[in-house]
């Protein structure tokens, strides 16, 4: 299982980014991955890196189609292969669930 956190936002569009974030999150939700929006980014869970990268590229394209001319993408990936660990299991392991 791959767990990732992504933040996608355009530059130079004013102080409110919510319309662009909404478009990006809607795109991610259409990816078939488990998607958890959070205040500072969105957590993705998928079977492999390719599915994560495709979902991020599609979200980028959605922000571009919404008018983004310069887009920042921050992506953190935990590619764990020794066991199938979900984001929920990570939180449980530190006593947060």
What would your notes on this structure say?
The chain has 97 residues and is of the alpha+beta class. The protein has helices spanning 18-29, 49-65, 87-93; strands at residues 2-10, 34-38, 41-46, 71-79. α1 packs across α2 (49-65). The radius of gyration is 14 Å and the shape is elongated. It starts with a strand and ends with a helix. The model has no long low-confidence stretch (mean pLDDT 94).
What is the gist of this entry?
The protein is α+β, with helices and mostly antiparallel strands and 97 residues long. It has helices spanning 18-29, 49-65, 87-93; strands at 2-10, 34-38, 41-46, 71-79. The protein has three helices and four strands.
**Average pLDDT, to the nearest integer?**
94
Radius of gyration: 14 Å
How does the helix and strand content classify structurally?
alpha+beta
Whole-Å distance between the termini? 19 Å
Report low-confidence residues grouped into runs of 5 or more.
none
Beta fraction:
25-35%
Give the topology, please:
Blueprint: E1 2-10, H1 18-29, E2 34-38, E3 41-46, H2 49-65, E4 71-79, H3 87-93
Antiparallel strand pairs: 1-3, 1-4, 2-3
